[in-house]
Model the fold of this input.
Amino acid sequence: MADTSKQKELQLVIFKVGEEEFGVEISQVREIVRFIHITPVPRALSFVEGVVNLRGQILAVIDLARRLNLKANPRSDKTRIVVVEIEGSTIGMIVDEVAEVLRLDTEHIDKTPELIAGEFQQQYLKGVGKLENRLIILIDLAKIFSSEEVEDIKNVQTAEEK
Done:
């Protein structure tokens, strides 16, 4: 008898960074906003772009392409900031484009191939989703950063709030 407690379908936010398409579970995404001016922060981690004031809240913004060691496309009117909650902190992540929100049956998700796993750190890869002629790399945003990095990002935000 099949295990019915397993989730049959994931609802994903699909976005592009460079030439790659990524998917994250919609539950990890708080909101998606247009790219706005980012104030640089001295001595921040290399992938921290700076901070923004989003409706009165100071938000650290990271460049996801830099964090994943990918070549980003030039910023355009499609560039977005995906706002996520990680370890109690709200963080913005710059992506080249948010493509869509879709549902993907778990039957269409494969284990991450070794070739891709070698390019990215394995702990935040959840698999590869297959859609007709597209492959979508599924990531867990909460695992992209180490606890120390999350703490450093929190420090950037609190320093700017003072």
User: Anything to note?
Assistant: DSSP finds three helices and eleven strands in the chain. Residues 1-5 have pLDDT under 50 and may be disordered. The domain at 9-161 is CATH 2.40.50.180 (OB fold (Dihydrolipoamide Acetyltransferase, E2P)).
